[in-house]
Amino acid sequence: MSHQLGRVVSEILHQYFGEIVQKVGHDLFIYGSKPIPMIVKTTGLPRKQVVESLRSLVKFDLASFEPSFNEVVADYKLNPDNVLLLIRYPRYLLQIKTKFGSEAEILVEELLQQASCTASVLLVTVAAKYKDDKEKNITLVKLRDIFISIATARYIQQAPVADKSEVPSLEPVATIVPDIDIRQLAQAMATDTLADVNDNIYWKVNFDRFHQDFRDDIMVKAITRRIDENAGELMHLLLQQMYLTSAEWAAESNPTPALDLRDAVHRTDRPDCDRKLLQQYMDHYLRVLEENGAGFVVRVGEAGGGQYVVRGRHAATQLLLAALDHTVTERLGSKAARIFRLIRTKKYIEEDDIQKHAMLPNKECKELTYKLLEEHFISIQPMRKAASSGAMAKAVYLYHIKLHDVAQSLREMCYRALHNTLRRGQHTRAAHARLLDKQRRVRSIVHSMRVRGEPQQHIDDHTRAAHARLLDKQRRVRSIVHSMRVRGEPQQHIDDHTRAAHARLLDKQRRVRSIVHSMRVRGEPQQHIDDVEETLTPPELSTLKDVEARLKQLSAAQLALDKNLFILNWYFMYPH
Amino acid sequence: MGSRGRGRGGGLSFTHEQLQSFGINRGENTATTLAPPPLFPKLEAKPLPLNCDAATDYMVIVKDQFIEYLHESPAYVKPNTRTDGIERYSDKYKQLALDAKRGKVLDCVWGNMPAELRPQANRVRITARKRKLDDANVLSKKLQTLEKKETLDENDETAENKDENTVKKENENEDDEELEDEEEQEYEIDEGTDYANNYFDNGEDYDEEDDNLDDGPVY
Fold first, then answer.
1. How high is the pLDDT of residue A220?
2. pTM: predicted TM-score of the whole model, two decimal places
3. Is A350 helix (H, G, I), strand (E, B) or coil?
């Protein structure tokens, strides 16, 4: 519940749901839980808009509610963690696509968009959407099979059920894989009577299951990079055995006998591992994994040919340390990283000893140490000597690393960086609302002309006339940028200005594409399509390319930051 | 003068020896800067490039699609349009575009929402607050009973005239009672402050309790 978290959450809400939901969400974040009249009072928004925002928040599980003291009214509370998950949605889709194929991806995407949905509605809407798509060839039967398989694998689960009161309390229910009557659905789809299908079991995406997958991937990848593919495969099998005997997020799994593991190796069919080699040298691999696998796996007994335990908590700590090392290296340089590692290995160390062991010049070493201290990577512990003569020897200062605190400050850094990237992207959209509006107007004119069936020539004339002014504006912006660059202003400012011009261009590109698409669908002659496409001039296209690259970079940065946050949250999951 | 005898001078809190142990030599102690730190501090090292593989490309595209979907859906709450009093040609189109989106209500599982968030919430509220008198039946009943009473009173009027004296007496009695009530009220108000109470104990009642105890057995 930090200040930085509040800023990120508010920015994400702005990007996904707009200004008003952001206001309501931020208000809830600051005050904890409150009822609607209080939100209306502090935000100054009309009640209707507050209600609408709360609907959006509650629907996507970004806010929860519970009855307040008079039972009829609810108190609302924001779930900041769930808001942060919005950034992770693409990763879920990628995961399900690689595991179950594109049909599963389409199903999960639809479910994410609907937040919660009955199986019949989900299947029918997806099937209807892709009815005309011959390439993908999606049928109801296929969708049903995939739905059942991802439900069995617990990637989706039943949504909690509400009781029938004014402020319902949601009770989680155990997921039962359903029987779906395809004939009934096909009939409903053909006659468009979906409402008659009696289905009141709602489904939602089980994020925790995806997180388990991410964790497994991280651990397997870490072992693969450290040792080799076969060891990675062995780690994968160990994790699978772990799921059979212990809780998913157990700090330490129940011991797995090596014999079980040997059976699993016989059955494995992963293409990227040499099965024969793994079978032959399994004991060696286990030995290497134990000794050189960063302590992910330890041997705890000799029974059954050796018993092995997967240590999730230790793995999280190790990965956190690696992330910290990288952060220190990138922020303060490799010498600071050396000092950081030194303090970590020595646990508690005096300043003079740091200089001796780090083998750095006296002054530089002190500077770096203080810098580390300033950025909260290390802490200081004064030890007072009881009775000694002389003012100097009164206290000893011991440097050490409080891992939990450092992890906290690293998380704050991630939040701040995430906020910055989001803010940067937002800037374009906010600064040029007027231009965007103009663009929309052009579009509506074009559209109405097309409906009235005017000749294509007129349409093009109109678009060109409207665009002439926009082009002029673009030219001016560019000249401003140029003069700024000449005057040597910081890159930051220049970037802002270039992006100012882009919001409009991006929008324009999208519109042109959609118009072209619709024309193609209607089978209009190529000549007209070319005319519309020509409204995007070559310089505009080149700027567009530039901007797209930058926005993509920002999005990629957000995804990378989210990966880091995942490891941090995994670390915080275990009590310390 | 609390600091006397501890440290010299007001500006520095460390002795030279202490400063030297921190790595600060004589003359190196620069004056403190009072300017705020820059809003965009310079990056000391260039950040590492992000890995841009097909998976990242895919995720970026999917993310944009999801955001676009949300923006088109009623989940994206639009602000009320503010007019500055100047009529514009474009107002009509803006209004058209807004109206197309405004009519929609977010498709939720209403059973899982609090009643106040459901679309028919307003109607529910009105029925809950309904006053008894608003109901026509109840109202007419009440009126009827009142009418009956009135007719009864009219019948009694003749009898009342005969018994005027007794009635007067009764009235007088009632008046007296009212007066007494008022007096009592005043008395109670006086009792409100502690000063009005007499807490003085002259000690006469001192032994009374014991006597009472002896009077009879306690069950």
1. 93
2. 0.72
3. strand
Q: Are residues B60 and B109 in the same domain?
A: yes
| Alpha carbons A468 and A462: distance in angstroms, whole number | 10
Are B64 and B124 members of one domain?
Answer: yes
B74 contacts in A (CB within 8 Å)? Answer: 52
Is beta strand A307-310 parallel, antiparallel or unpaired with respect to A349-350? unpaired
Of A20, A167, A202, the CB nearest to B115: A167
- If asked whether residues B62 and B118 sit together in one domain, one would say yes
**Three-state SS letters, A365-414:** HHHHHHHHHHCCCCEEEEEECCCCCCCHHHEEEEEECCHHHHHHHHHHHH
Q: CA triplet A495, A498, A502: central angle to 5 degrees?
A: 125
Nearest CA in chain A to B51: A556
Query: Which residue type sits at B207?
Result: D
Q: Which of A69-78, A90-99, B82-91, B158-167 has the highest mean pLDDT?
A: A90-99
Of the residues B77, B80, B91, the best mutation for testing chain A's interface (the one with the most A CB atoms within 10 Å of its CB) is B77
Q: Which of residues 234-263 of A touch B (CB under 8 A)?
A: none
Instruction: State the residue range of the domain holding B122.
Output: 56-73+92-129
Q: Taking CB atoms and an 8 Å cut-off, how many pairs form between chains A and B?
A: 148
Asked if B67 and B100 sit in the same domain, the reply is: yes
Task: Write down the ipTM of this complex.
Answer: 0.78
Q: What angle is formed at CA A423 by the lines to CA A421 and CA A424, rounded to 5 degrees?
A: 65
Q: Which residue of A has its CA nearest to B66?
A: A113
Give the nearest partner residue to B93 out of A113, A333, A441, using CB atoms: A441
* Confidence check: pLDDT of A103 > 80: yes
Kindly state whether residues B63 and B122 are assigned to the same domain: yes
Q: What is the mean pLDDT of residues B15-43?
A: 73
Q: Do B106 and B167 have their domain in common?
A: no
Q: Which domains does chain A have, with CATH numbers?
A: 3-81 (1.10.10.10), 101-205 (1.10.10), 210-310 (1.10.10.10), 315-401 (1.10.10.10), 414-564 (no CATH)
Among A52, A113, A166, beta carbon nearest to B114? A166
Mean pLDDT over A204-226 rounds to 93
CA distance to partner chain A, nearest, from residue B43 (Å): 9
Structural element, H or E, at residue A64: strand A63-67
Tell me the nearest-neighbour CA distance from A261 into chain B, angstroms. 32
Q: In three state form, how does the secondary structure of B138-187 look? A: HHHHHHHHHHHHHHHHHHHHHHHHHCHHHHHHHHHHHHHHHHHHHHHHHH
pLDDT tens-digit map of B77-121: 877 766 666 777 766 666 666 666 666 777 778 888 888 888 865
* Three-class secondary structure of residue A171 per DSSP: strand
User: What is the DSSP secondary structure assignment for residue B48, as one 8-state letter?
Assistant: P
Same domain, residue pair B103 and B142: no
- Mark yes or no for CB contact B77/A160 under 8 Å: no
Residues 520-539 of A with CB under 8 A from B: none
Number of domains in chain B: 2
A437 contacts on B by Cβ (under 8 Å): 90, 94
Instruction: State the nearest Cα–Cα gap between B135 and chain A, in angstroms.
Output: 24
What is the per-residue pLDDT across A404-430, written as a single tens digit (0 to 9) for each? 999 999 999 999 999 999 998 888 766
- Find all residues with CB under 8 Å of A567, minimum gap 6, and list them: A218, A316, A319, A320, A323
Asked if the structure places residue B120 within a domain, the reply is yes
Per-residue pLDDT reduced to its tens digit, A277-318: 888 888 888 889 888 888 899 988 888 778 899 999 999 999
If asked whether residues B147 and B183 sit together in one domain, one would say yes
Residue B36 lies in a domain: no
Residue B154 domain-assigned (yes or no): yes
Among A79-88, A533-542, B34-43, name the most confident range.
A79-88
DSSP type of residue B78: P
User: Which of A58-72, A213-227, A366-380 is predicted with the least confidence, judged by mean pLDDT?
Assistant: A58-72
pLDDT tens digits for A118-175? 888 888 888 888 877 666 777 888 888 999 999 999 999 998 888 877 788 888 888 8
